[in-house]
Amino acid sequence: MMHFLRHALCRTASHRPRLRRAACLISVWPVLLMLIANPAMAASQRLVAIGDAAVAYVQANHPWQGLHVRLQPPVLDERLSLMACAEPLRALLPVGGRIAQRTSIAVSCPGNAGWTVHVSVIAEAQADVLVARRAIARHDSIRPDDVIRARRDITRLPYGYVQSLPTERALQAKMGIAQGAVITPSMTQAADVIRRGDLVAIELSDTRMAISMRGVALANAAAGELVTVKNSQSGRTVQGEAIASGRVRVQ
Fold first, then answer.
1. What domains are defined for the chain?
2. What is its main location (predicted)?
3. Distances (CA, A) of 209 to 177, 197, 203, 204
């Protein structure tokens, strides 16, 4: 084909001087190269379109809206041969999939070409999370000066994270937490307001009167939890709600 095009474009110069023929050949080569390169250029553009479709889907559906998110488009093999798609590409999350640090997206051509390619989009989402300022022992209360806020890529935190300490209730460590560790929900629990052996006030309340008597807690309990206490006068055990340090309410 190259020989035919070269001959067709330069045949008018066959009766002219050699210099004119050389100039003709030089002018023809860019045309020939463009004809050869166009299929490769079209294929490259199709690969870029696939990556753009996958990134656009993740951008619209990721769970980190409002944060600084960076998405890395997929790298596709340039040898991948796909028919041109006459319709807009369709990107979907595979059944059972979820958007995470690395997400597989199915990009397909809904037209006559009828192909589907699975590609991976890598995400990074930066947020401020709580990190242990010092080592925290199991069952120790977690106070504001025990933690600091630090910027982390939360896509790499599969067990979750905590962004602030609750103001309505105290937290304690459910397990030992190392210095510098990101605080996760599974590491914390509501702090006990009553501990086994504590002297408590047992408050009996009804619609007519409130009665208080002394007792001893037989277990630990956080605010709102049920705890068993022993009445110091009668020796009987009752179960009530821990409402504050040293206070148990029995209905």
1. 126-190 (3.90.1210.10), 192-250 (2.30.30.760)
2. periplasm
3. 46, 28, 10, 8
